[in-house]
């Protein structure tokens, strides 16, 4: 059978990996897909660099629309990134009746509803395994492997750049800026690395997983997004003394009154597997009612690991594109008429436990005033640590771990504690999850 023809839009880090892996493993991939998969056309603004990568194997153009307009092309792979031109091109490819593969989590987390609706109306597939946790087949696992389960929660280290930064800062005592530059050099970071360090990229991915797990639309605007730029070395150290590691987690959890969707630095017990995921590696824990806990670990970024997921989608489409669209796996795991509108909970209603660090005056009665405020708000204390403060002799660092409570309640307690004259600096508040 004739090879299926693919057009690549963008041949940067992921695009070049896709081209190289497809060429290297073409015989095996053909054996699995049932026919060859050929990148016949490549569009990139940098045509010179694109030609260096593909040689004579594909036509290189600078105008992505020329790929979409080519009737020979069956599948368009969007690897440009961002919400701008990438969105226009994906919508145009769908309108032209092409199947689409994309690694663009930003685009799907924000415009997924519109894109999936357009694809369904046109009877084409939009595949996006590379968009969440790169090479880890987590979309496949959530949509197919775990399809029997009522998913309870998902917690993931889903941004390699920030995990790399946190690991290097903790183990080598390196500076934030130095480690960020290295992550950029290694090709992990987004074009705009603020998306990584401010938690936006992880929130894009958590948003997509949340939709698939709970059958709700993608709603990035409802996600709580907090990155690692405010994280202080002292808290990494104290967390360790208390038996925890700090990880930037993407969390989504079913509660009685709605769904939690949040990204923030999180204390995780040091003996959990996920707490020991280091460097740019990703890991996702999924809790299902039947299967229990499952863990998915691997490379979430980089040229060939991400290409691995892009090509898996190409193989899926090659096998499935002649199937009746009603018999394909739905984009968000649930059939469009089986989706629900369970609300995403505001952060005030989220249930979590906390790590607090207060710099307090080293005098009698301070601790009891603070514990009284917590007790008045019905917040129960799990552990307390008192340490000499780096700030000076008359001050002390007071670290408190709490049991689970509603975030809104903690906010009220924090405001009262902050107002005490013996609390000498802004209180550090981090969230803690046992993930059991
Ligand atoms: N790098 C990773 O590890 C990784 C992992 C998972 C997902 N992703 C996602 O994959 C996508 C691509 O990321 P990347 O790291 O390969 O980016 P990149 O910057 O390395 O590559 C993007 C390419 O697109 C080209 N381009 C830009 N505008 C264009 C246009 N209008 N027409 C044609 N070409 C254009 C650029 O010249 C560049 O070669 C992004 O959505 C990113 O979020 C990346
Ligand atoms: N910038 C992302 C790339 C993979 O999506 C990361 O660091 O994980
Ligand atoms: Na993936």
From TrEMBL:
Biological process terms in GO annotation: methionine biosynthetic process; threonine biosynthetic process
PROSITE patterns documented for this protein: ACT, HOMOSER_DHGENASE
Residues involved in NADP(+) binding: 9-16
Active site: 205 (proton donor)
Keyword annotations: Amino-acid biosynthesis, Methionine biosynthesis, NADP, Oxidoreductase, Threonine biosynthesis
Residue stretches making up the ACT domain: 355-431
Example GO molecular function: NADP binding
This enzyme's EC code(s): 1.1.1.3
This protein's pathway: Amino-acid biosynthesis; L-methionine biosynthesis via de novo pathway; L-homoserine from L-aspartate: step 3/3; Amino-acid biosynthesis; L-threonine biosynthesis; L-threonine from L-aspartate: step 3/5
EC category name: oxidoreductase
UniProt-annotated binding residues for NADPH: 105
Residue sites binding L-homoserine per the record: 190
Family: Belongs to the homoserine dehydrogenase family.
Protein name per the record: Homoserine dehydrogenase
Organism: Paucibacter sediminis
